[in-house]
């Protein structure tokens, strides 16, 4: 019976010692993590107190606000640039032809220049022995309100398909 008492007491002592060692290891591990965190905090707070830390945070917010204002200005400029680009002539169609059969060579041409909405003009220059004649016809959204010659129609199609 005494032996049973010593055996169960011995088991309790071993259990308590094992638990003590586990808790000691966990305590050491947590202490190391806390020390590492304190070093990071000290490094962050080095040369700062609560007042100038507050000032630094306020200054950061001011800088962020300035950046946001500049970003908005930049976005407006980008939108204006995109609008301007859309109104620039982007599509081109040219057809060379012989306007007057008595002259050799394709010295006449029809030049069509359109923006992104197919609005622009057709410039037709006819070269002849007596001189050159130049005509311009307005194109609005792919439609001409003046009668187009075959070469002008071909130049318009080339420009719209380019």
**Strand order, sheet with most strands:** 1-2-3-4-5
Give helix and strand order, one letter per element, not per position: HHEEEEEH
What do the pLDDT scores average to? 86
Measured as a percent range, the helix fraction is: 55-70%
**What is the percentage of strand-forming residues?**
15-25%
User: What is the total number of structural domains?
Assistant: 2
What is the count of β-strands? 5
Main sheet overview: 5 strands, antiparallel
- N-to-C CA distance: 106 Å
Radius of gyration (CA) equals 43 Å
Question: Helix count?
Answer: 3
Structural class, from secondary structure content?
A: alpha+beta
Give the SSE layout.
Blueprint: H1 2-45, H2 50-86, E1 91-97, E2 108-114, E3 120-127, E4 132-140, E5 143-144, H3 150-161
Antiparallel strand pairs: 1-2, 2-3, 3-4, 4-5
Q: How would you sum up this structure, described in words?
A:
This protein has 162 residues and is an alpha+beta fold. The protein has three helices and five strands. The chain folds into two domains: 82 residues, no CATH class; 71 residues, no CATH class. It has a five-stranded antiparallel beta sheet with strand order 1-2-3-4-5, covered by helices on one side. A hairpin with a 5-residue loop joins strand 2 and strand 3. The longest helix has 44 residues. It starts with a helix and ends with a helix.
Supply database-style keywords.
162 residues; 3 helices; single chain; transmembrane helix; transmembrane; alpha+beta; DUF4446 family protein; 2 domains; 5 strands; membrane; DUF4446
């Amino acid at each position: 019976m005494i032996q049973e008492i010593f055996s169960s007491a011995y088991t309790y002592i071993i259990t308590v010692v094992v638990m003590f060692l586990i808790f000691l290891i966990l305590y050491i591990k947590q202490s190391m993590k806390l020390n590492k965190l304190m070093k990071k905090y000290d490094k962050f707070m080095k040369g700062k107190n609560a007042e100038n830390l507050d000032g630094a945070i306020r200054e950061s917010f001011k800088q962020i606000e300035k950046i946001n204002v500049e970003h908005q200005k930049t976005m407006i400029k980008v939108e204006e640039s995109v609008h301007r680009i859309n109104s620039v002539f982007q599509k081109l169609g040219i057809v060379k032809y012989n306007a007057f059969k008595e002259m050799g060579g394709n010295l006449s041409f029809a030049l069509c220049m359109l923006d992104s909405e197919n609005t622009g003009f057709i410039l037709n220059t006819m070269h002849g022995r007596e001189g050159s004649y130049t005509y311009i016809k307005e194109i609005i959204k792919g439609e001409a309100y003046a009668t187009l010659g075959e070469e002008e129609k071909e130049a318009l199609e080339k420009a719209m398909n380019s």
